Amino acid sequence: MRKKKSTQRSVWAETWRRLKKDKMAVAGLIFIGLLVVIAFSTMFIDIATNKAVYNDYVIKQNLRMRLQGPSPDHVFGLDEFGRDILLRMLWGTRYSLFMGTFAIVFSVIVGSLLGAVSGFYGKVADNVIMRFMDVLLAIPSMLLATAIVAALGTSLTNVLLAISISYIPTFARTVRASVLTIKDQEYIEAARALGAGDGRIIFRYIIPNSLAPLIVQATLGVAGAILSIAGLSFLGLGIQPPTPEWGSMLSNARTYIREGWHVTVIPGLGIMLTILALNILGDGLRDALDPRLKN
Amino acid sequence: MEKEKEILIDIEDLWVKFSTDDGVVKAVNGISLKLEKGETFGLVGETGAGKTTLAKAIMSLIPTPPGEITKGKINFKGEDLLKCSDHRIREIRGNDISMIFQDPMTSLNPVMRVGEQIKEVIEIHNPKMSETELHEKVVEMLRLVGISEDRINEFPHQFSGGMKQRVIIAIALACNPLLLIADEPTTALDVTIQAQVLDMIKKLKQKLNTSMLLITHDLGVVVQNCDKVAIVYAGEIVETGNLREIFKNPLHPYTRGLFDSIPSLTKDTRRLKPIEGLMPDPTNLPEGCNFCPRCKFAKEECKTKNPAFVHKEGEHYVKCFLYEEGK
Amino acid sequence: MEDNKELLRVEHLKKYFNTSSGMLHAVDDINFSIKRGTTLGVVGESGCGKSTLGRTILRLHEPTSGKIFFEGKEINNYSKKQMKAVRKDMQIIFQDPFASLNPRMTVGQTIEESLIIQNIYKRNSEGLEKKVVDLMDLVGLSARLRNAFPHELDGGRRQRVGIARVLALKPKFIVCDEPVSALDVSIQAQILNLMQDLQDEFGFTYLFITHDLSVVRHLSNEILVMYLGQMVEKAPAKMLFANPIHPYTKALLSAIPVPDPDFSVDRIILKGEITSPIDPIPGCRFSKRCPRAIDACMDGNLPVEEVEPNHFVVCKNYEFSKGGKV
Question: Residue A247 half-sphere exposure, CB side, CA atoms within 13 Å?
């Protein structure tokens, strides 16, 4: 094995360097970055203007001008209530992005813990946890989410909960697989020989080495969660109007397709591009984190 | 009593480099060698010397990019392997030229039974063989490498490292190739198995007149099996000759250092004599002689000039200023 | 200082693994003791159980039966907590210098781990950094490599890290599981010298597991030869090489390729099937391949005979000539 120049690159710096080379992944990253900036900016504006902009432009109806197509004044046109679609898209960014992320973060934490315990202790614990995961997986995620929301009510929290739960099995499985592989590696044995206990081994040795597949899954998971949120809104179970969530925008515009293509197409495109960007980024991350290049 | 020497493979001035993020790795820097039919040619050197790259170049297994063969020819059976079509190369691989790789742990398909993997190579090159014939050949190969027949349906992970290597050797020899390239074939094997396997390879070699390019760092193995030897350092051959010439009269300081650093079975040494330092960084080879920084006999000219081959006797050539003609 | 005191003793040690094809007898009834400050070499073919033996002694595998005595105390019954304390004195250097290091931890962090786990130093405490640098210096690693990751180092340096982290605990007993097999020849020599120097300076006791007979001869005081989990012969190093008695040992020694074209030896090429360690045949497992096998070999009980002082052989039909043939 050749010795690399010891400029002491950490594993993450290496990964970043490799990621930068994948033009598509970088494009995806830039797009997501842009969305994050938009989301924070709109939140800032709301705080600064005490929701004045929101109330006056985003949700205020103007029925005389309804369904007007794209024009110099309103780049994306107006929706069925005469509201500016561009502004609604911008204000709606936070729901898709942040909700998607929060849902997944919760999923990741619960799923990883379950997966780690399952993989590490095996036998009974493994069986019980994995069978439970199987049950969750057997139910189509949309149905599961629908059932939870229908039972508990259509609040933001419940929607997030529903989506999180449906993603837990994916992360549990990913982490379990990593743990099973890593558990038998010699450096784990070496740690035991030093006298390290289970806790230390799981948190300092196994989990840091399982992050790669987890990060990739999580990125893709956010994409999926966004789609789920949009889907739930589409079914009327998610965010309630007049909140400008992209999925509900799409749903409510259904009946007006013939009168104005822009009312459905714009939100649809927004969702599509976001999912695409996240998927490309996820793919890029998977390649960048590939340990094959370490050898 | 010299049989007519038929050259099986003739490597002419081969240069291979790899473009990596860390720089350009100069893996092979002008290696030439001729391998005769029926001969075992030993390539001796340590990790990073370029021996595996050379072997892979013969098999057209250098990924391009990042690798690039910048110069040279590899003549085999009247063809330049570097210019052959993909189709022709695939015909040659496994059938005319076989290779055994260095790492037995990753050379076998983990989800395919061992018998299947041996059968596969025979099937590819003998599409008309019947199932029974194939099975017989597989059993024969297993027996040849010392694996009991009842393990034919087991998976690689059920074998120890040494056993895996034996399976790999079985696969390599299944089609009776003309040339066997063996890259550290017995490094992972125990001495008795090593003796068995080398003995087996020797017998097969004699029976079928198979030639072998044996890459190894084990000087004992070289002595027991090779007719000719070349010592490789930093992508170059620094010394070459027949067996007796090299072992009875090692000339190059690296060769001598190598011989000195091995614990002896017959002599008692309190401390070993390692060669100080490490092999040079292939992205940053020294000016002049590659071995100069570690050489006890280095002179001024070694730092700036790269020595040329000097013919000492018979087939013995060495690349070192210490032995220049007339000095 | 009691130099000749026994540090480790192993009695009837067995380790079996339950596999889907049957019971794998990895280590079967091994007995030996090692004196403080000496090296016991363990040699044998792959699958003979030498690695398993090393790990079982450290209870990285739980022994199936048998006793392990460390400094006179029976440790096979120790609780997790008691074992943790003992581990400070019983350590292991692994064969694969890449696989045995956590890829996400730097050299410095890896060495620190030993000290922190065994409560010799607390994380971020004063003196920890200096201790790490001192250790790196002792094993010949430059201090600037402290923040390097394993994948940035070559095999030799990685192995030095493996040695440093063991050295940090100043253990009394170290199992060396093929520590130089994965290294280049010239690096092997450097590492072997280092291990020898450390033994001279700190009085370590080594259990040196290897398949390389020239290395074991160089480094060991005594050698134990194993075959498929069973002990076959045990003798002081020079005696074993000068006068091997067990037919397997003889075959083993005759099989070593010597790098001298004029050196010739009657090669004993072993024939026959390698028997399986799973539900093994009764008696001597080498009998199927042994040129001197007799019916009694498959009987079951295997007597250990002290053929000459300190030279033990487990064989019912050996050929002994005092002084031996070279």
Answer: 25
- What would the mean pLDDT of A26-44 be, rounded to a whole number? 91
Among the partner-chain residues C99, C118, C145, the one whose CB lies closest to the CB of A6 is C145
**Is the pLDDT at B70 greater than 50, yes or no?**
yes
Sign of the CA dihedral running A7, A12, A15, A16: negative
Q: How many CA atoms lie within 13 A of C325 on its CB side?
A: 8
Q: How many degrees, rounded to 5, is the angle at CA A202 between CA A197 and CA A203? A: 105
Structure-token pair, residue A55: 């109330």
Distance of CA C53 to CAs B212, C26, C29, C88, C101, Å?
Answer: 38, 8, 11, 19, 22
Average predicted confidence (pLDDT) for chain A: 83
Of B146, B220, B257, the CB nearest to C259: B220
Q: Do C217 and B265 touch (CB under 8 A)?
A: yes
Which of these, B56, B36, B11, lies nearest to B183 by C-alpha position?
B56
For residue B19, the surrounding DSSP H or E stretch is strand B7-20
Q: How confident is the model at residue B1, as a pLDDT? A: 44
Those residues of chain C that have pLDDT short of 70 are 1-4, 272-274, 322-326
What's the mean pLDDT in B275-291? Answer: 84
A294·C103 Cβ contact <8 A: yes
* Main-chain phi, psi angles of C196, to 5 degrees: -65, -45
**What pTM value is reported for the model?**
0.76
Please state whether C300 falls in left (phi above 0), alpha (psi between -120 and 50) or beta. Answer: left
Determine contact, residues C293/C221, Cβ cutoff 8 Å.
Answer: no
Nearest to B228 by CA among B308, B310, B314: B314
C-beta separation of B227 from B194 below 8 A: no
DSSP state of C77: T
What phi-psi label fits residue A120: left (phi over 0), alpha (psi between -120 and 50 degrees) or beta? alpha
Cβ contact B221–C255 (<8 Å) = no
